[in-house]
Q: What sequence folds into this?
């Protein structure tokens, strides 16, 4: 399973305008609903907010992985958002999050969802990768960086 199989350029926003946690989630869900047909933004937003209320998905090193299961998607979908300034996401290390991987999967698909989280966490631990993603100027560059990491480059 490759992350890049679940991310399209239309689902990458390199210039988030959100200023807080709720706005980040809303902006990423809107990005998803604008790029995927048959995607009910309200239902997905509710699912992600409900999951986030159970505990923050803000990790360390500027990474957050808001996620949820939702019947309104046909397969795992990943939306990436980047904030160069950083946004308070109640992260584990107390630092602002700068790159967000919103993941939505149907309830029937536990495997890819869990694998994707593990791949993102592993990628975030590689020296310099998060900085490269944050500095990427466009969606194609973001995909290129992720693809290089997944291919061992």
A:
């Amino acid at each position: 399973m490759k992350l890049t199989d679940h991310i399209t350029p239309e689902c990458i926003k390199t210039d988030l305008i959100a200023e807080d946690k709720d706005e980040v989630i809303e902006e990423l869900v809107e990005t998803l609903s604008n790029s995927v047909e048959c995607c009910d933004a309200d239902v997905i937003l509710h699912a992600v907010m409900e999951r986030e209320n159970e505990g923050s998905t803000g990790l360390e090193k500027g990474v957050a992985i808001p996620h949820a299961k939702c019947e309104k998607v046909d397969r795992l979908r990943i939306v990436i958002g980047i904030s160069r300034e950083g946004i308070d996401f109640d992260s584990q290390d107390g630092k602002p999050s700068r790159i967000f991987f919103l993941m939505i999967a149907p309830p029937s698909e536990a495997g890819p969802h869990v694998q994707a989280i593990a791949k993102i966490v592993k990628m975030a631990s590689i020296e310099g990768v998060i900085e490269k993603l944050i500095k990427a100027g466009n969606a194609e560059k973001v995909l290129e960086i992720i693809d290089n990491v997944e291919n061992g480059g």
Notes: The CA atoms of residues 37 and 73 lie 9 Å apart. The chain has one domain: 3-150.
